[in-house]
Amino acid sequence: MQDFIYQNPVKILFGHDQIPALAQEVPQDKKVMIVYGGGSVIKHGILQRVKGSLKNTLVFEFGGVEPNPHYETLMKAVEIVKAEKIDFLLAVGGGSVIDGTKFIAAAALYENDPWEIITSYGSVVKQALPFGCVLTLAATGSEMNNTAVINRATTQDKLFFASPCVMPQFSVLEPEITYTLPERQTANGVVDAFVHILEQYITYPVNAKVQDRLAEGLLNTLKEEGPTALKNPQDYDARANIMWAATMALNGMLSAGVPTDWASHLIGQEITALYGIDHARTLAIVMPALWRYCKNEKSEKLAQYGARVWNIPESDTEKMADEAINATVDFFEQLGVKTRLSDYDLGDEAIAEVIRKLKEHGHIALGEHGKITAREAEALLKMAL
Ligand code: NZQ
Ligand code: ZN
Hints:
It is a single chain. The protein is of the alpha/beta class. The protein folds into 2 domains: 11-176, Rossmann fold (3-Layer(aba) Sandwich); 183-382, Dehydroquinate synthase-like, alpha domain (Up-down Bundle), CATH 1.20.1090.10. The chain is built from 15 helices and 8 strands. The chain has helices at residues 22-25, 40-43, 46-52, 71-84, 95-107, 115-119, 183-199, 209-231, 236-249, 263-275, 279-293, 295-310, 317-334, 348-360, 374-382, and strands at 11-14, 31-36, 58-62, 88-93, 131-135, 147-152, 157-162, 170-173. The strands form 2 sheets. It has a 6-stranded parallel sheet with strand order 1-8-5-4-2-3, sandwiched between helices. Strands 6-7 form a two-stranded antiparallel ribbon. β6 and β7 form a beta hairpin. α4 (71-84) packs across α5. It is globular. The protein binds 5,6-dihydroxy-NADP and zinc ion. 5,6-dihydroxy-NADP binds next to α2, α5, β6 and α7. InterPro entries: ADH_Fe/GldA, ADH_Fe_C, ADH_Fe_CS, BDH-like.
């Protein structure tokens, strides 16, 4: 196991009817701005419940944060925060709303060009407004981590930043809120969380048994509960297990003390920015191809994963690795998430564009060994056609 420092201060309020607790969690002496997305929280009564629990608080609202939150939209929120002297934010939504809120929180207190927050990967962030979250979609783990992914729509740059200053103060996780998710978003969420675990697990062995077995437990949970939630959207236990698994998948616990990959995410982000394909779907395209391309380096962990998650019988390591990759593809497809570029009408031209953007962003030494250059990325994407 590698050395590590781990700290996660986010308070989680999990289970039935947690929204009323906002009355205690949101400081009453603050001016609060609720940030939300395209309107699902209005349609399903979540915003009303949130406002109902903040009766004694001065509340502003900012709606319209898009999936893959646009920098341009978030900057409008920053202007309002500054003008109205808002001093607490409350994100009510999925990963896009929470990520957008993290950016607003940091940009509101940043004196220079706010895009520097992104280009510096967050290193220029020294302070941010405090904020909390009400999560409506189990997927990204943003509710319990320090990362946000922001999309500058005008230039097609989708990039992440991270900072300890943008850890939520608290996150409300009510599994019942996810009953209303469209099938596509439920499936996306399971795939995104599943891939988060794999990015931190399918590398090379460092004999980190706690991290490995945590990862395998979470993967098994998503494997069992994903199809159940799709079949029966109001199965509380399935929704609860998926929600907690997705949070645990990316709250820093799994990556402490182990090598991590993240190449599928960085390549996938370019596909979303250029072609608007849902985040999880880009991962389902890239990861299997990347594994096939990097099978030699990853074969031991792939075989372990195959045995412990997909019950693949012990045999030759390479054969087990192949079967593990195939089982993963079958799982994504079973959830309705397609795994080839051609399924989304993308071909060689798209690959060339993705490579151009990866170069522009300097993302040309990816993966746990830093060996995925632009040339490797191109070759592996061709395997995803
Ligand atoms: O916008 P509204 O109307 O609210 O509708 C949303 C949106 O259309 C809808 N939705 C959310 N909760 C709902 C609901 N519909 C019905 N009932 C509910 N309870 O779902 C749609 C997608 O929402 P979005 O927030 O975009 O999805 P997700 O949570 O998957 O977030 C994706 C974003 O998170 C980033 C991705 O890159 C992407 O931009 N990620 C953030 C990470 C992080 N901060 O650590 C890590 C991830 O790898 C990921 O990259
Ligand atoms: Zn992701």
